[in-house]
Amino acid sequence: VNGVETEKTESVLPGDACARGLLLALADAPAGTRFLVRVAPEYAYLDPHHGPRMVPLYDKLPGSSPERCRSRRFPRPPAGVDAESFLFFDVGVLARRVAAPVRRPRSLPETSKRNTATAFPVPFATKRVLREGDGFERPRPPFDVSARVEVRVASPATDDEKTDAAAVAVPETVVRYVSGDGTLPPELDAAVDTMRVGEEAVVYAPPRRRPETPPKNARLAMPRDALERAAKNGAEYRVRLLGITHVRDVFGDGVVVKRRLEEGVGDFPGDCPVRDCAVTARVAVAAASISDDDDEKKYENASSLDEHARAMLGEEGDKNKNASGSDPFAALASRRGLRFVHDTGAQTPLAFRLGAGAVPAAVETSVRLMLPGETALVTVRDALGAGARYAYERSAPDAPGADAARETLEALGGVASSSGKNVFPQKQVGLVFVVRLVGFERPVNWYRAGLGEMLAEADAGRLEGNALLNAGKTELARDKYEKTLRDLRGIRGLESDEEIRATNALVNSVTLNLAAASQRLGSHARAIALVDEILSHDPKHGKALWRRGVSLAATHEYAGARADFRAVAEGDA
């Protein structure tokens, strides 16, 4: 390089020796050619956009003049290279393949040791597709993923000459993991997240400044010498995506996790019971304790809810399916350490309405994300603590398996007092549900239905909210009223006065009921705001005045309350 001998005390990665001028020269160079490239300093180490390793002060850059570097930052060149000199590259293009760049995951910080630490802006990784996959879905955290992986790195050179041959560092291995859990190297993990089931590709991870830390999964661990060669020359992964299992953090707090066991029929989410409606489902529930047991016995020990789920889906799950006729309900019942407390049965599925608190919130919300015929495994962690609100704490007293589940949870996780009630939980306990959506009543399509159908469904929602309110389920009634009111306010294109009057009458009725529910929950400011919407159009509306007067009196606004009550009395007279 410019007649300067580069000292061999430091490894020079490909990115350190590259420059933007060389990149331009390589853009259309065919494989098998050899040529000489002359690069000016402005297209090499004096290019301010060259890379991330910048020199903060001009006096730290050997051979640089203050006039050129006082107010700019430049990449640091390799030892022995003058940044202001012309560079000459003797280039031989060995191979040229079409590949797509793989983006760095947002969860991986830029300063991570896993970064490619070269001055030249090389991609995080590249992927070359060998065989296209099927479908449209791709893995994403926290999906369960199954892939076949082979790892290759550059073969060690026998002489001073370098070789481009690749040696197998890890033979073809089937790996099961959770997307984004750190089991795979980050470049490979990010590349697999762009693949579809059945797709086969070659993923290239650029060189690193230091050997990577071996991944958690020992089956992908490379020998030390292979790690060092991968850090110097990069690693190549030949991977085929075998399968993905849908896994969702249902509420986003890590307490409730839904795993798909069997596929349903239809398209997600158009064929899911997202709206409140009548559904039919088979529901089974079991309880389990969570303790810190030996990791090596995690499939034999039924203490971890996540391991229960993965065992049913992975290697241990295959054994259970063979033993139970591929029935996940029978597989759950046969798991050691689980206390199977209730199953509605295949012949007598449970019929209930969504939004009425008939089943635990974990089950109801999971059902809304399911297709007809789909079977899912729903786990609730810490069912006596943080997960109680998603279990049976807020569901109906006659919810399926409620009494048996509560008794089992208390027996597993707590100490009974003299009164028989659980006092202090000694260890975390959780619930495991297996849910199969048999079918559901198709709700009205508010984008295509006529006004009569929409008003009829809205009135049914109002009546259902009234029943919940009378039963003391005030929060569920409030939610039902809010959904119904949101639908009614979305109606457009009313043509006749009769249609407008009918719609407004139902809107006012639902609004008043929502105000009543808010008052019972102590949200008097919300109740006043709701009835004010009605009074802004009809200042003499008696029921709205009464509701506002009650809330004003509850908030010690006695003058305003007296005025509203007087207006109601005068109107009745």
TrEMBL record:
InterPro entries attached to this UniProt entry = FKBP4/5/8-like (IPR050754), PPIase_dom_sf (IPR046357), TPR-like_helical_dom_sf (IPR011990)
Question: What GO molecular function terms would the record report?
Answer: peptidyl-prolyl cis-trans isomerase activity
For this entry, the protein name equals Peptidylprolyl isomerase
Taxonomy-wise, where does this protein's organism fall, top ranks first? Eukaryota, Viridiplantae, Chlorophyta, Mamiellophyceae, Mamiellales
